[in-house]
Amino acid sequence: MSESNTRLTNLIQEKVTPIAVKIGNQKYLAAIRDGMTSIIPLTIIGGFSVLLASPPVPTGLKATNFFYSFLLSWQSWATANSNILTIPYDLTIGLLAPYVLVAITYYLTKRYKMNMITNLISVLYIFFIVASPTTTIKSVEYLPQTDLSAQGMFGAMVIAIVVIEINRFFIKNKLVIKLPSSVPEGVAAPFEVLTPMITSTILFVILNAISIKYTKSYLVGIIYLLFKPFTNVSDTLPVILLLAIIAQTLWFFGIHGDNMIGSIVTPITTLNIALNLKQYQSGHAMTHIFAGSFYTVWGGWIIYPAFLLAMILFAKSARLHSLSKLAPPGTIFNINEPLVFGIPTVLNPYFYIPGTICIIINLTAAYLLTSLGILGKFYIYAPWTTPGIIQVFISSMDWKNIVLWIILFIIDLVVAIPFVRMYDHQLQKEEQVIKN
């Protein structure tokens, strides 16, 4: 590494890395990131529920072979049992906002070492005030699902943070009802949040009333509208590429890039896949490209297998040769840490340059072909350990995504080979010096 490169690296590590780490550990962003990650199992279950209830059967399909007969039988069975099959969807994607609220509240109260259950009850109560007015239909009261679904996620994030901060302010400044120390904690804790809960009630009832008067919408609906332009912009190719390049660059400097941008990307991709799933279920055209695992499945989950195959085919150095034998089981299932830390890719231009080139090619091709309607959009979350080539099909139920994955894998391999060979040649020289 040249002296100028060394100075640049040291400067970034001294000045930029601490800032990036501080942003990654920012309490609200960390709570959102961890909270959104914890609800992924719900989105997987909800997605497969809709898939069972609404199989991907083309209009006019006839039972001309065994597979088509199976699809038509599946469709007939799903139609007869739709009310039962969609229950998991209704109670997961259909009620996503309260789960997000619970998850973020959990991580914030854990960070502050506050009583979890009393604060959680407080947050849930305030959320229902501003999210879901009861509706009476035929003398029966119902909670409308709109603001409790994915559309209410951003409102849930805001309410969780604001209410917990109000509670914390009151507790920290001892503006609470404090019972004697002899009273058991289980009895004393609810009284501790009573004063801040009353304050939050008055505050949010007033804000909600103002919102209804001037916008005809509950507060959570307004919060969603405020965030909607941001989510729309994030569903564009330039923003997707920018996020990907930022993540790649952070990885280059030894910072977990995916974690850093996760607090931004995960809420958006979760919302988008939930909206796509709702549109699919209702028979409407899906509208969001940047959904579910789109970013990862067309990014590192192609690039790292291509790097690995290039190493298997051409590596002669002891390090890469041995690594190419150890890494395949993890890489197949999208566990790329053995390659990241074994190569290593940190401060390694031989992998940063081709990785950046490949991720730009991959995301651009996938985005443009999807926007043109050639490829199906993602509407199902598959477990993240599902191999990429399988995941692109499960996520979209479109076989053409498999074809594109194979083509991009070959392109990434071609891009990776010369860089892997150059790095391998350098390692061989270093190993020869050590031997001598």
Automatic annotation (TrEMBL):
Q: Does the keyword Oxidoreductase apply?
A: no
Q: Name one Pfam family in it.
A: PTS_EIIC
Alphabetically sorted, this entry's keywords are: Cell membrane, Membrane, Sugar transport, Transmembrane, Transmembrane helix, Transport
Q: Where are the transmembrane segments?
A: 35-54, 91-109, 116-133, 153-171, 236-254, 289-315, 402-420
Report the membrane topology from the UniProt record.
Multi-pass membrane protein
List residues of the PTS EIIC type-3 domain.
12-419
One of the record's GO cellular component terms: plasma membrane
A single GO molecular-function term is: protein-N(PI)-phosphohistidine-sugar phosphotransferase activity
Q: What domain of life?
A: Bacteria
Q: Which GO terms describe its biological process?
A: phosphoenolpyruvate-dependent sugar phosphotransferase system
Q: Where in the cell is it found?
A: Cell membrane
Q: What does this protein do?
A: The phosphoenolpyruvate-dependent sugar phosphotransferase system (PTS), a major carbohydrate active -transport system, catalyzes the phosphorylation of incoming sugar substrates concomitant with their translocation across the cell membrane.
User: Which named protein is this?
Assistant: Permease IIC component
Q: Which organism is it from?
A: Ligilactobacillus ubinensis
